[in-house]
Amino acid sequence: MDLRQFLICLSLCTAFALSKPTEKKDRVHHEPQLSDKVHNDAQSFDYDHDAFLGAEEAKTFDQLTPEESKERLGKIVSKIDGDKDGFVTVDELKDWIKFAQKRWIYEDVERQWKGHDLNEDGLVSWEEYKNATYGYVLDDPDPDDGFNYKQMMVRDERRFKMADKDGDLIATKEEFTAFLHPEEYDYMKDIVVQETMEDIDKNADGFIDLEEYIGDMYSHDGNADEPEWVKTEREQFVEFRDKNRDGKMDKEETKDWILPSDYDHAEAEARHLVYESDQNKDGKLTKEEIVDKYDLFVGSQATDFGEALVRHDEF
Length: 315
Prior knowledge:
- The structure is a single chain.
- Mean pLDDT is 86; it is low at 5-22 and 305-315.
- By secondary structure, the chain is mainly α.
- The relative contact order is 0.16.
- It contains 17 helices and four strands.
- It has helices at residues 3-18, 46-53, 55-61, 66-80, 90-101, 103-116, 126-138, 149-163, 173-180, 189-200, 210-217, 228-241, 251-258, 265-277, 287-292, 294-297, 301-314, and strands spanning 124-125, 170-171, 208-209, 248-249.
- It is globular.
- A two-stranded antiparallel ribbon has the order 1-2.
- Helix 2 packs across helix 3 (55-61).
- The termini are far apart.
């Protein structure tokens, strides 16, 4: 059993073992917050460090000298400058922040890539993925766990074909990332909606009605009284989810529900960093401007010690 199969089985077992009637299932894909710290530059730049580097990577800078922090920051700036014109724009900075925040996704892809690129040619074909993921279960028409792996394989093949932009059934690493994490890619959002609707639409009429919507997130399990949050979800369905008031959600209404247009925190932070660091006010940053303002972007022993002094004084 490979990692994907193990995780699938584990998630299913966990769901059955741990789910309770009053627990709410959340299918909405929100953009995560850039940091759990308060954004108050008058107190510290911790929020900016987390946003720019990701929380775990930001911690590694706190033990560096200012000179070491500046050196590492300079190397990062070279990566951010995608077109190599010597400037970092708001868009380039926004893309970097999004990458830093979702580094775990790329690490997950790297782990899975090694197990599926069987011939080590730098590509993953559908045949490679199918054999690595489903090879042994396809030989067993009646698996012990009773799970329908063939149905899952058909669903995976459809998603693989959607991710595979040139239609050759061979995925580059970017296409493989879109396959594993479709919610992160605009061109994959239709398949996210389709899979969600198939999960919830029990009568297979192509829509999600109120009872299917509630049934996906709550099981009565013999209880006559619904929790307050279930009653609230019923109201949400009627007032907001079912926009045309026909008693059910179609594809577009489902998309608005599970893939909402969130506030773009990464763009807001990118604009903030450029505004604070742009010495000549030309709307873009040089490496020198960023390194000169290094303590806004990254931590060091000096900034960590300085913040400790501020906390001590406040105490």
